[in-house]
Amino acid sequence: xxxxxxxxxxxxxxxxxxVLAYRISIAETILGRSFCPKCKKQISWYxxxxxxxxxxxxxxxxxxxxxxxxQYPLMELFTAAIFAGIGAKFFDxxxxxxxxxxxxxxxxxxxxxxxxxxxxxYMEIPGIVLWPAIFAAVGFNLWLDxxxxxxxxxxxxxxxxGWLGMLGLKTPSGVLAAAAAFTFFFSLSxxxxxxxxxxxxxxxxILLGLILGWPQILxxxxxxxxxxxxxxxxxxxxxxxxxxxxxxxxPFLIAGTLIAIFFHQPIISWYLGLFIV
Length: 277
Ligand SMILES: [Zn+2]
Description:
Blueprint: H1 2-25, H2 52-56, H3 71-90, H4 96-122, H5 127-147, E1 158-159, H6 162-166, E2 171-172, H7 173-191, H8 199-212, H9 216-237, H10 250-273
Antiparallel strand pairs: 1-2
Bound molecules: zinc ion.
């Protein structure tokens, strides 16, 4: 039952995130009624039901009959699946801290999904979403530290870093992961003068490191490059892109991060299992 509630909640938020990405791009107000991006006519509430309206309207605007992008239902479903996963993994109605933890992951997932859509459409990372999310992630890490809740979820682990530890200072492993991931993408971006990787990806890496912690960030980066490479090969073989054309990278980083959040344990044990025969 909990999962279904999270799923439906995800459909609704997903529908909002689609609109949010679009409105940020045209610097519109975030609130206010939805309208068709093509004919600009306001969409009535009954045509604005996540997923259902898309099917009932057969992917066409009621007014101008222009096609509604598949992006809308797909991202709604994607958000719903992620929300259901977060509900299943982190939420336990009887445990107070799990409410905070669940809220944190839902917020982070929402921010990542908007960045995913935005980078996919406009090849740019929206700072207006990224920086508040980084701020919130730092806050959550500090909260973990202050409360000494090292067992709160598997990413809540606090890592004492050598001499910092000796001074009695603890550094959340998220900071280490963020610094490492940022340095890596910053170097790629600087070396290639933003041809291989944009500076936006380096800033995004800070957020991903904070969310995942060390060493889970390594798995996320590995997955991102693997998924990106497969996607690139498919596009090139379908002759949709040339070797040199640019593909936005944030969607792959975000996909890798989401997979790492949910599956890093089975993936790592599977990988380690390869060496024990
Ligand atoms: Zn229309």
